[in-house]
TrEMBL record:
Cellular component annotations (GO), alphabetically ordered: Shu complex
Entry annotated with the keyword Cell cycle: no
Pfam families, per database record: SWIM
Name of the encoding gene: ZSWIM7
Listed name of the protein: Zinc finger SWIM-type containing 7
Domain SWIM-type: 77-115
Source species, domain of life: Eukaryota
A biological-process GO annotation: double-strand break repair via homologous recombination
Zinc-finger keyword on record: yes
Keyword line: Metal-binding, Zinc, Zinc-finger
Top-level taxonomy: Eukaryota, Metazoa, Chordata, Craniata, Vertebrata
Amino acid sequence: EVQLSVEEDGGHFACSSRGAFERDKKGFPGDLAWLKFVFGSSAVAALDLVDQHSVTRIVSPSGRAVYQVLGSSGKLYTCYASCHFCTCPAFAFSVLRKNNSLMCKHILAMYLSQATGACQELSVSDQQLASILLAEEEEEGLGTMC
């Protein structure tokens, strides 16, 4: 089980699991309350995605990287750390349209998996990465994102 750690300055955090969240709900001291306070219900869902190793960093020889997160629905979403964007409907609705969330659970899972080293890594050619991005763009009808 991976534990959450939040530095005093609030600038650093790592990951936890649902088990730690359950302990925190029972009144044990912990930093999960902070994570849930800042990110709401997305925090628990993101921790579940990290625990399930659902986050993959896809990197090309040129240094370009994107993240793909296998959502709880079984659909694969692409996240861009460079511009804080996710292709999921929740990001489009809650973050962009309603502006009532900082990020979706997929982006939070991306950051948490980076912080804990729980992110899987896949190396692909630049051409393969371009194909992945073009396929995502065509599927979602997104146009230029970042």
